[in-house]
Amino acid sequence: MSTLRILYRDDALCAVLKPSGLAVHRGWARERDTAAHRLGQQLGAQVFAVHRLDRGTSGVLLFALNADAARIVQESRDAGRTQRSYLALVRGPAKACDNIDHAIPRRAGGPRVPAQTDYRSLGNFERYSLVLAQPHTGRLHQVRRHLKHVSLPIIGDTKYGKSEHNRLLSDRVGLSRLALHALSLALPHPLTGNPLELLSPLPNDLAQPLIAMGFGAQLAELGALDAPDATGALDAPDATGALDAPDRPPKARCPGSTS
C-alpha cells in the first residue's frame, strides 16, 4: 500500500495529495484501500475526511485529526467560507471566462438545487482547452456536470464525456485518467480562524500529458509542477503554511464578477 504525500499537517488538520483512482473512504467504495485508511495507517491515528473528491479526481484532500476540528471545518464549508479551485482539460473551445449558473442535485437522486461555478481558460491545444474552475457550491459532480452543461466535457470522464476523445488522448499523450485535479483549497483554520491556503501540485499521470500538449508554462505559473508523483511521500511542511505559489489561491472569476 503506497503512502500518501502529505502537503500540510498540524495538530488539527492534515492535507494530502490524493492520486486519481483512489476512493476517499469506504463509504464510497467496498475496497479496504482508501485515502482515509492509508492516511490513518500512515499517521497511526484516526482521521476524519472533511470534504469529497471523486475517485478519478486527484489533488488536495483535507482530513481533520479530531472530531471537533472536523465539525468546525464542516460548519465553515456549509457557511460558504471555503474556496476550491480545479484544473480540468476539456473538449471544446472555452470562453476566456464564464459563470455557470445551473441547478443540479446535491446528492444522487435528490432534487435540483442552485449551483454556480466560475471558470477561466488557461490555453488551448487543437480542439481542447485547459481551464481553471472554481465551484461556489458543493453539489454532486458539480465541476464535471457544469462543464458538460456548457459543452465542455472533461477528458477521461466516462460518465459525462466522450469515449472517442478519451481514447485519442490516451494514444497521443498518454492521458488515461480523468483530467480533473483539485488544485487548491482555502479555508479558515478551525483552531485559530486564520486563513489557510493549500495547494496541490499535479501528479505525473496528469502533469506529463498536459506538458506534452504545451501547457507547461501555465502550470508552472500556477505552482502546479513543483512535486514528484503522488506515490512519493515527502516530509510535510510545518504548520506555517502550504506550498508557495505566485497566486494563492488561484482565481477563476471573470474580472468584475461578484459571484
Can you put this structure into words, describing what you see?
It is a single chain. The protein is of the alpha+beta class. It has helices at 35-43, 67-78, 142-149, 163-173, 204-212, 216-221, and strands at residues 5-9, 13-18, 48-49, 58-64, 83-91, 97-101, 104-105, 112-113, 116-125, 128-135, 180-188, 195-199. The strands form 2 sheets. Strands 1, 2, 3, 4, 5, 6, 9, 10, 11 and 12 form a 10-stranded mixed sheet that branches. A two-stranded antiparallel sheet has the order 7-8. The termini are far apart.
Record keyword descriptors for this entry.
259 residues; alpha+beta; ten-stranded mixed β-sheet; two-stranded antiparallel ribbon; 27% strand
Give a short summary of the structure:
21% of the residues lie in helices and 27% in strands.
Number of helices: 6
Task: List low-confidence stretches.
Answer: 227-247
Mean pLDDT: 86
The ordered H/E elements are EEHEEHEEEEEEHHEEHH
Shape: globular
Biggest sheet architecture: 10 strands, mixed
Radius of gyration: 17 Å
- Count the strands? 12
